[in-house]
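Section 3.1: Structural characterization of target chains.
Under the original work plan, the team committed to producing a structural model for every single-chain target entering the pipeline before any wet-lab resources were allocated. The record below documents one such target. The sequence was received from the expression subgroup and is listed exactly as submitted; it comprises 232 residues.
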Amino acid sequence: MLTLLTYPRNGTVFSLSPFCVKAALLLAYAGQTWTREDLNDPRKMPHRKLPVLRTPGGLVPDSNAIRAWLEQQGTDFDAALGTRDRAQAQVLIRMSEDTLYFHVVRDRWDNDTVWPTIRDSYFHEIPALIRRPVTSSIRKSVHNGLMFQGTARFSETERSQRLDQDLRALADLLKGQDFLFGAQISSADFSVASMLQAMGTTPVRTPLVSRILDDAVLQPYVDRVFETVPLP
């Protein structure tokens, strides 16, 4: 039996982490029999992060490595794509995971309006008496990471403009078709839809949440992906 080590649910969403959601989509699409195991502290994991897939042969860390492992078992996530489309799918995956993701992190961890909710829901297991000082240190580390990566260096207006360019590009790709490459779902959809879902399910209605939920192309697309590959 395969076990996906994942962060807990975010309401009705499979996990707080879009990368854990992506891994679950990969497993579901591959038709594997698997179960979930929720963790809050990934420090003992190989990369000190989640998701991690526990297999009979050992631990497989990171959603991209999980995909590679499933492909070794015989699943082709891009069977309907030619060489050029497969290359473009990889570009979209990187755009999603290395650019869009940091807007999710910024909206959840570096937003004073959202932070109290994040603190008290993500870290509810920490006693209330010490929760603020412990989580303030974690939050500062996240902020420093966002500064190093670059997202936190821009003003709110600049960030919104940059993000909107990417979201409009995705919407343009999707107009007139069900998925990013037409009628058949692909690896790119698992990454992009997971990230868009995360943007739209931050537990406070921020402008970014509204931007996704009110989008006439992107939100139906997210719904379509999760209807096509349902998660437990």
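The first strand starts at residue 2 and ends at 6.
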